[in-house]
Write a structure and sequence with these properties.
It is built from four helices and 16 strands. It is mainly β and 278 residues long. It has two domains: 154 residues, no CATH class; 96 residues, Immunoglobulin-like (Sandwich), CATH 2.60.40.
Length: 278
């Protein structure tokens, strides 16, 4: 995730003297509600529309954040091409119509027209006719949410693509979001460190956490302080005993959350612990 989700602050923290700001696109607000707060700096909240696997031609909105305003469009396209294969909870739900090796070459804007340039692999893959509408909708809808963008031109190695026919993206292709879901449980550690620094329970959008308890296979809750991550996308446990967390171990999570549009969900899940370095 683009957001610096590992950076966290206590849920009972005092607000800083000067609050930071999160500037959200209208698409973000429509699908996920008001933008979460940030303590310092200026962040940008936007949506990436991933092609849906179960509904050909449809797209699924997913929230992303960045502190770099200048690169928002390029970052959005790069992440769109990358897909969601690294998030097991979305396997079978999000398709990958971009041929292997596809790269974003350039993104430029002149007045209301944004030109998105891709490498030759996008043309060589011969996308399935059923996936082509989702691919074009995903590109165009992702870019048209940004302020001042009225049209999107899709180019391959500088040449206008046949995919360019979708300048007017089909906004009815966006699937309605269900209630929030738990995505994964991931332990983070510094590069080269033997013990984890924190254990994160990630959700698919900013949420307010009503209850969250992480425990081992024996049902005993892990001891430590609980925090909420930057952008409210995760609950973060700073464990008292970091040595007990190993990659692949089962972690049970009991949770209850509400998103910023009032959609609530709760559950009890058991997930294999992922361990990542940062």
């Amino acid at each position: 995730m683009i957001a610096a989700l590992g950076a966290c602050t206590p849920t009972d923290r005092q607000a800083p003297a000067k609050q930071g700001a999160v500037i959200a696109t209208k698409d973000f607000q429509r699908h996920f509600g008001p933008a979460p707060k940030v303590d310092t700096g200026t962040a940008y909240a936007f949506v990436i529309y991933f092609p849906a696997a179960k509904d050909p031609g449809k797209v699924i909105p997913f929230p992303f954040f960045s502190f770099d305003e200048a690169s928002l469009k390029r970052v959005a396209l790069v992440r769109l091409i990358g897909g969601m294969g690294d998030i097991s909870s979305y396997q079978g739900e999000i398709s990958q119509p971009f041929p292997a090796g596809t790269r974003v070459l350039d993104v430029s804007q002149s007045n209301g027209l944004v030109s998105a340039g891709f490498s030759k692999e996008l043309a060589g893959g011969k996308p399935d006719p059923l996936s082509e509408p989702a691919l074009t909708n995903a590109i165009v809808l992702t870019l048209k949410q940004f302020e001042g963008v009225e049209q999107v031109a899709i180019r391959i190695e500088g040449v206008q693509s046949t995919l360019d026919k979708a300048r007017k993206a089909d906004e009815s292709a966006v699937l309605e979001l269900p209630a929030p879901r738990l995505l994964s449980v991931t332990a983070m550690r510094d590069k080269g460190a033997s013990e984890v620094e924190e254990v994160d329970a990630f959700f698919d959008r900013p949420v307010q956490i009503k209850e969250l308890v992480m425990s081992g296979a024996d049902g005993k809750p892990f001891q430590g302080d609980t925090y909420q991550s930057v952008f409210d996308m995760a609950a973060v446990l700073k464990p008292k005993d970091p040595a007990q967390f190993k990659a692949g171990m089962p972690v049970k999570v009991r949770w209850s959350v509400t998103d910023n549009l009032g959609r609530s969900a709760s559950g009890e899940s058991e997930m294999a612990l992922e361990v990542k370095e940062h």
